[in-house]
Amino acid sequence: MQQSVMKAWWDSSHMAGGNAAYVEELYEAYLDDPNSVEDTWRDIFDKLPKLDGVALEANHSQIRDEFRKMAALGPAARVPAAAASGSGAVSDDKQVKVLQLINAYRFRGHQHANLDPLGLWKQARVRDLELSHHTLSERDFDTVYNVGSYAIGQDSMSLGELYKSLNRTYCGSIGAEYMHITDTEQKRWLQQRIESVQAKPEISRDEKVSILKGLIAADGMEKYLGAKFPGAKRFSLEGGDSLIPMLKGLITHAGTHGTKEVVIGMAHRGRLNVLVNVLGKNPSVLFDEFSGKHDESLGAGDVKYHAGYSSDFATPGGNVHLALAFNPSHLEIVNPVVMGSVRARLDRRGCEDGSTVLPITIHGDSAIAGQGVVQETFNMSQARGFKVGGTVRIVINNQVGFTTSKIEDTRSTQYCTDIAKMVQAPIFHVNADDPEAVLFVTKLAMDYRNKFKRDVVIDLVCYRRHGHNEADEPNATQPLMYQKIKKHPVPRQIYADQLTAEGSIDDHEVEKLISDYRAALDHGACVVDEWRPMTEHSVDWSPYLGHDWTAPYDGALSVDKLKELARAMCRVPDGYPLQSRVKKLYADREVMAAGDKNLDWGMAENLAYASLVDTGVNIRMTGQDSGRGTFFHRHAVLHNQKTGEAYMPLQHIKDDQGKMEIYDSVLSEEAVMAFEFGYATAEPRTLTIWEAQFGDFANGAQVVIDQFLSSGEAKWGRLCGLTLLLPHGYEGQGPEHSSARLERFLQLCADHNWQVCVPSTPAQVFHMLRRQAIRPMRRPLIVMSPKSLLRHPLATSTLEELSEGVFHNVIDEIDDIDAAKVKRVVMCSGKVYYDLLDQRRKDERDDVAIIRIEQLYPFPHDEMAAIVQSKYKHVKDWVWCQEEPQNQGAWYCSQHHFWASIPEGGKLTYAGRAAAASPAVGYISVHNQQQKALVDDALTL
């Protein structure tokens, strides 16, 4: 800085006096938010050197030199009178260093916190936390300094007191990470809550006894199971016992502040303990499961540590409904399912801020760092279509991932929770052997979530007393850790000893609590005092139970009603400037609405939605381009060309209509599909739709398809009406985006678990969507939706076809062909039908009939039999034609259905592409040759 500039600044600044505190406050504000100070000050502070690894902090010796240079240009710097002991004057540069020290602890105190119960963590030296690094020493301990915004309840402290306070607050059993948050209000709020009690508030004796009872329950449950069922897998919680009082405290605190429902997602570790000791599952039922007893009416079933459960839990604010989500072994995949379930419950309650329903997700330390769906759910957490008011995320950090404990093998970051910093979530690392610290961060996390409606993370640092499961031998891979664990007392014992030492409880009371819990387990009754029978918290599923595919569907609408709805869905506010192509599309829709032009795909689909919301049905659709439609066909969401404002005509059909929501989702398949699955399992009255940008994008959500959609009812009895729209068809666009992998869905078909449909006309998609919403059966609908058919001149329908109210599982020959002359019948699904129809008409063939199978599963045997017996029982030559390679598509998985459909003595052959490793070729010329060949093969006798 030029001397003249420095002198001008000095002459006009408060530093010319002894007002160091003023500068200190400014500098501290600058550290929190550079834009919070005036430009002149910011320019000065910007030029100060930066500290190692921490932005916006300065090396104090260099700060001192800078300020001394400034002082040399003006009057001699005066020092304020020393406060308190009078043992020394406070120099300006040391005052700044003290503020820097406070800031260093806020930033990096967690790196020296006592977090590991086993004492195995080797923390690197953090020079920022050393007095000498700030040119301070114990000789300065008696000097009193202004502590700025340090929320200890006083403006100044001696350095000695401050140093002890900082270590108690930031380097005890809690390591708080929050300085990465850019919002000053959030940081100030957290500082106030943490620093005002030095991270260790006073708690009552009743709370202490409640914590101890939770630890006794956690420990007692595991020991009981270990003795009664030795060697059986239970994925013990031992070592992470504090999870039980943590969850009970979290639910109690949430219910006290207005929460009505809690949805919990967790993998295996500690799940059985949570089921019994938090949700109140009857221990005798669990013991029966360990003994191999089961109810044969419950379907295929699942292992006990995948099971869900629901109950009510009494809190001072009223009963809270608890739901532990079912989940498979794919660990983190349950988290977006939980979020979707919570969103559905919030929508049902009309709660927009998330205050009435709380999501809690429980993670493993290796899983939260290692599985990509975690990033996807963090990314969704504040997105418009997926926010739930914040999720409380708890990490059971037992420091081992299966058999891997070396950090460099499990992640590339210091903490497993660093992924949460992408959304600036506060992270509270806490030593699980200090249950009072655990309770403090639990309440703090809940209050933060309620106030700021954002995610918050608790890293419960603990250990795993046994191997990955109770049959494993952990000493084989972690010998040093398990030598230490073997000698380490259990959390219940540590805390009981602490309470007896301080006089809060005596040994006799402890033994009585232990024996009472053991007796309750022997009795087999519920061991959770707060358990209550479920009341009205859950949606009523009874209207959707016990129905099969033959459930009646009355979807008929008059042509006049359809015209009325069509006009309503085409209304755009006066003067609303549309993009030119969209304007023409809506003009065409108005002609269709009048009945003067056949309806195309987009018109019929939107009309289905209009007809449903008109009767009060709610619709939710998400996908990466769902408002417009990837192929420019839907345009359910319009965009003002001058202001960018969005308008959805489907939200304005009539005043008291159902809710219509369409969200262009985050760029995710796995998490978004899982979210929608969770939504559909919690809200049967809403038509819930997930649309893939291209059908093969569903590949990224294969875990959701395999573990939830196809088998959720068989394993867990979970009904779900989720609809997947998967664009599918061979238009010569190469290996990607041609195939939605129909064969994968057909391979998973069994037990009438879902519907797989390939509609080929606008009327068919209209009736298919209405049937899915109106028919009182909730099972997934998998749709191979079209691309080129969206504007195909033959793929149109009349209003009369829409009014008839029937989805045709099979569509017979539509041309005027004499059935008696037919020598070959070609069966097909989807777009290839139009290629076959066009070629047959060009060839003027009248001896080949074409039948479309619009629902491949459950296969429409009765409808096929009716057509065959009435018209084609004389035909011996039958062909299945498909665009997909022979090892893909419907041929292999549905061939037995085709054989069952043809007359006795008939012959079935295949017409299509040869088997291939890739879904499609990459060259348009080769594609055209293949397409022509398979069509010719199907039609040529």
Within the CATH hierarchy, at the fold level, what is the topology of the largest domain? Rossmann fold
Report how far apart the termini are.
92 Å
Biggest beta sheet summary: 9 strands, mixed
Radius of gyration: 34 Å
Q: Which CATH class of the largest domain? A: Alpha Beta
Structural class: alpha/beta
The general outline is elongated
β-strand amount? 5-15%
Helix content bin:
25-40%
Count of folded domains: 4
- Which consecutive residue ranges, at least 5 long each, have pLDDT under 50? 1-21, 51-62, 67-89
Rounded average pLDDT: 90
Within the largest sheet, what's the order of strands?
Answer: 3-9-10-8-7-4-6-5-11
Total of DSSP H or I helical runs spanning 4+ residues: 32
* Number of E-type strands: 25
Architecture of the largest domain, according to CATH? 3-Layer(aba) Sandwich
CATH superfamily of the largest domain: Thiamin diphosphate (ThDP)-binding fold, Pyr/PP domains
Describe this structure as you would to a colleague.
GO terms for molecular function: oxoglutarate dehydrogenase (succinyl-transferring) activity. Its EC number is 1.2.4.2. E1 component of the 2-oxoglutarate dehydrogenase (OGDH) complex which catalyzes the decarboxylation of 2-oxoglutarate, the first step in the conversion of 2-oxoglutarate to succinyl-CoA and CO(2). Its cofactor is thiamine diphosphate. The chain has 32 helices and 25 strands. Strand 21, helix 29 and strand 22 (about 850-855) form a beta-alpha-beta unit. A nine-stranded mixed beta sheet has the order 3-9-10-8-7-4-6-5-11. It has a seven-stranded mixed beta sheet with strand order 15-12-16-17-19-18-23, with helices on both faces. Strands 20-22-21-24-25 form a five-stranded mixed beta sheet, with helices on both faces. The protein has four domains: about 5-140, no CATH class; about 205-530, Rossmann fold, CATH 3.40.50; about 560-805, Rossmann fold, CATH 3.40.50; about 810-940, Multifunctional 2-oxoglutarate metabolism enzyme, C-terminal domain (Rossmann fold), CATH 3.40.50. Helix 4 packs antiparallel against helix 5 and helix 20 runs antiparallel to helix 21.
